[in-house]
Amino acid sequence: MTASRSLSALIFCLFSMTCMAQDQLNLSGSLESNVNFYMRDTKIGAANTPQYEHQLVGTETWLTLRAQVSGFDLGIRYDIFANSALLNPQDSYTDQGIGRWYVGKKIGKLAILAGHIYDQFGSGVIFKAYEERPLLIDNALVGLKLTYEISPTWTIKGIAGRQKNLFDLYPSVLKGVNIEGFKSFGEEGKLSIAPGLGIMHKTISDQQMDALAGTLSQYTPEDFIHEAPFNTLAASIYNTLTAGRFSWYVEAAYKTDDVIYDQFASRTLWTGVPSKGKFVLTPGHLIYTSLSYAGGGLGLTGQYKRTKNFNFRTDPFVSLNRGIINFLPPMSRINTYRLTARYSPATQELDEQAFQFDATYAISKKIEVLINVSKINRPDATENKDTYTEVFTQVSVKKPRKWTLLAGVQYQEYNQELYEGKPGVPSVKAVIPYADYLIKVNQKTSFRTELQYMSTKQDHGSWVYGLEEFSISPHWLFELSDMWNIQPALNADGTDKTEKLHFPTAGVVYSSGPTRYSFRYVKQVEGIVCSGGICRLEPAFSGFKFNISSNF
Amino acid sequence: MNTHKLIYGCLLSFVLCLFSCDEQKRIIEPFVPAGNRTILLEEFTGKACPNCPKGSRELENLLQQFPDNLVAVSIHAGFFAKPQVPPLGQYDFRTPEGDVLIDYLGPPLGYPAGDVNRTPVSGEMLLSSNAWASAITTQIQTAPSVELSIDHDYNSTTRELTVTVNGIGKEAVSGDIRLSIMITESGIVDAQIDVEAGGLVPDYVHNHVLRGMLTPATGASISNGLTLGQTFSETYTRTLDTNWDAQHMHIIAFVTDVQGNNFPVLQAAEIQLIP
């Protein structure tokens, strides 16, 4: 069914039910719209994309409408991309249409949902359909979901459909089933388990197999794959055990033989020239566990993850953040400050071993300390084995209703060659002290100040970042910031860079009820943008950004 | 409780069925090229693109495997082909025709990207390098609807190149039949970023570089449809730039059948400028 037919059918359905319904119709919706005005600045590298060259303005809009009537849930979302850089930051994308529609109904213990479905099994390692607008990830499963409530604490759900590919669908078919529940023991319920089992099944289409076989048929004998499966099965079993103040989550997943693209695998070409990157036939596995303790002002969490060949995609030929069926949880801290978040590691689906330890302790009601350590490597790799190390500390001191101070130091070792595909560059080693001070002048007015310094000799060199925010609640927020390349790294030939570039930002945000408007002048340095463990390199930005978001 | 048993039973059956099903896997046979179809591979690349040499190696790999059935051109266009900060060599390989073609056929979602016979695969015109082989395998299995031959004359003193492309319809085709003539140069030594070589390679050898076209970028209209046995002969002239090495140049000619947003290549041919 084409998008316009879907829209017509849904609107017809909506109006029909509204006319016939005895019950009241509840309508709600949301709007999010971004407008970027591009102003070329070759000094910072904000140039050489169609937006800077001649398009000048790019926009993205998502308009959602939801209706509830007679026990039915209906929804539709219209997406518009006009000269947008979201799909490919180095290019322009224009298209529009229905980004999502769904119809749902609960009948007794059975819930039916048809259309674009967002959901996940367990932590998502074998299936997660989700939307992440900053990276234009929209992995909705277009099909049917049935959820049955076996008991108040046990549910089973089944899904079937195809994954969304912008305004189209991938040809492969996905099916899955997930059962999960909860059981407590003892009278006080201090001991409980929350087990689950998920299974996903992928069948690639004849057309996809023809394309794959066409490529494999031309491999040299050294790399040749003699048979390729249409079907791949991924299963995961997981459980959360809670015992008093302890909680232990463990998940193990296995994927049967699948032809996946291994970008690091050595390949022999017919020319005799060695190269890297080829399709391989391999199973995959993943183990993820998280043990935490919380009580008495102390919070401890330790996590471990081992991933091997857990690339699970709807199409063997897609890469980057396209066509991903699952979601591998990131194992580094999700940082938010401008400089502490500058280098973030993307999850490595082919080979990754990661540890993370996080501890928080409330010394008193006013003082809290935090330390987070993460270490990621690739045990089976021949090069770029050590990929990421981070130590993050923070002290939080506050005087209730008066002021709050957050301060700490972060240390990072970030394998830029691996994560950003920049050949030959050394790993970035950075030390970043930072402070964030919020003072409330009165009930309506507050100031917030951020100061950060990144000391590194790699990549662009050392940075200073300062931000001043002035807030008059409930409507206004003004911000002024600058990121200054105070000590640029040396040029490739060892000479000093003379220019110490500034990346200023100035903006105003106005909020009125559920609607928020922001208008900002932005100069942004090239960097990695991540969502969860999925990251991509974004080129520098120079220009104005206008955003409106609203719920109604 | 009976309902629960039924659900668990169904779930168990589903799992057992999935694990026990013995599927008929696709047997992969080595592909041996045959026939007289000549395929056009247009690769979009750039000197600042770290992964593009991998695409170029794949292109050479395919040329080795399809010596009589494939012609290739490397079009330096798009983000990575634009003059970047030094040191990235001395030449700017971009051409006005390349800039038109990247808009006409793209833009690509990533680099290297290329089209095979200007025929989309799963709705995508520009394919990543690991998908070129399969697209060639598909295209090569159909007989060409046009036969092409190239005659040329080159005056090394005036550097004037005259190219005549002769064709004959092998079956009836409708649409706007267009002829494109490209000239490419190989063996150009200049810088290139190469992820597999660990960074900047100052003496990288660039091959099949599009230097220009004798026809408009999207082709010159020569006929409204073709019938079986219908012939055509088109002649174009261009003076070569003095910086180009004629000894390492090739002439590529191909015919496209333009019908709205579809413009597949019907047949391609290539000859050396100085044999």
TrEMBL record, chain A:
Keywords: Signal. Residues 1-21 form the signal peptide. InterPro entries: DUF6029. This is TonB-dependent receptor-like beta-barrel domain-containing protein. It comes from the Bacteria. It comes from Candidatus Opimibacter skivensis.
TrEMBL record, chain B:
This is Omp28-related outer membrane protein. It comes from Candidatus Opimibacter skivensis. InterPro entries: Ig-like_fold, Omp28. It holds the Pfam family Omp28. It comes from the Bacteria.
